[in-house]
Amino acid sequence: MAQGSPASALDPKSIQELVLCSHEAKKFAYCPYSHFRVGAAVLTSEGKIFSGCNVENSSYPLGNCAERTAIQKAVSEGHKVFKAIAVASDVQDEFIAPCGACRQVMREFGTKWDVYLTKPDGTYVVHTVQDLLPVSFGPEDLQKPK
Ligand code: THU
C-alpha cells in the first residue's frame, strides 16, 4: 500500500517551491466554462514534482480537476508515494479547498500526507489527507474479510 510521510515533514524551501509550482500550473488551466483557474503540484517521495491544472470539457461532467490531473500525471509515470500536494486558485481571501472527488483520489495513495491549500499571495494552510477525508474508504478495505 502506498503511504506518504507524516504531516509537516517538509522544509520551508520545499514548501515554497511546491506552492509556487501550483500557482505556475494554474496558468495552463483550461476553464472556458467556469473561468475558475486551479493549479496543483504533487511532490513524490523521490522529490519529483508533477503539476496539473483543471481541464474542462464542453460535455461538463468530463472536466478534470487540477489535483487529479497532477496525481494522474505522477501515477502514469510510475510515482505513487506522495509527500504533499499544493493547490492554487485565484481566490484572494480564502484558501482553496479540494473537492470531495479529489480528496478520495488523494486518499487512494495514503492518508498520512500533506495538502497545502494556498492563496495567490503564497500563504497556505496545511492539512493531512486524513484531516480532509476522515473515516474514509481505501484500498485496504478491499482486502478485509467479508
Ligand atoms: N476545481 C479544481 O480543479 N479543483 C478543486 O479542488 C475545485 C474545483 C475546478 C473544477 C472546475 O474546472 C472548476 O474548478 C470549477 O469548479
Give the CATH superfamily.
Answer: Cytidine Deaminase, domain 2
* Range of helix content: 25-40%
Number of helices: 4
**Number of discrete domains:** 1
The largest sheet is:
5 strands, mixed
Please tell me what the overall shape is: globular
In this entry the ligands are: tetrahydrodeoxyuridine
| Strand tally | 5
Q: How much of the residues is beta strand, in percent? A: 15-25%
The H/E string reads HEEHEHEEH
- The strand order across the widest sheet is 2-1-3-4-5
Given as residue ranges, the uncertain stretches (5+ residues, pLDDT < 50) are 1-6
Backbone structural class: alpha+beta
Instruction: From the 3D structure, determine the CATH topology.
Output: Cytidine Deaminase, domain 2
- What integer is the average pLDDT? 94
- Alpha-carbon Rg, integer: 15 Å
Please identify, by name, the CATH architecture. Answer: 3-Layer(aba) Sandwich
Question: Roughly how many Å apart are the termini?
Answer: 20 Å
CATH class: Alpha Beta
InterPro entries: APOBEC/CMP_deaminase_Zn-bd (IPR016192), CMP_dCMP_dom (IPR002125), Cyt/Deoxycyt_deaminase (IPR050202), Cyt_deam_tetra (IPR006262), Cytidine_deaminase-like (IPR016193)
Binding site for substrate: 54-60
Pfam family, one: dCMP_cyt_deam_1
Keywords: Hydrolase, Metal-binding, Zinc
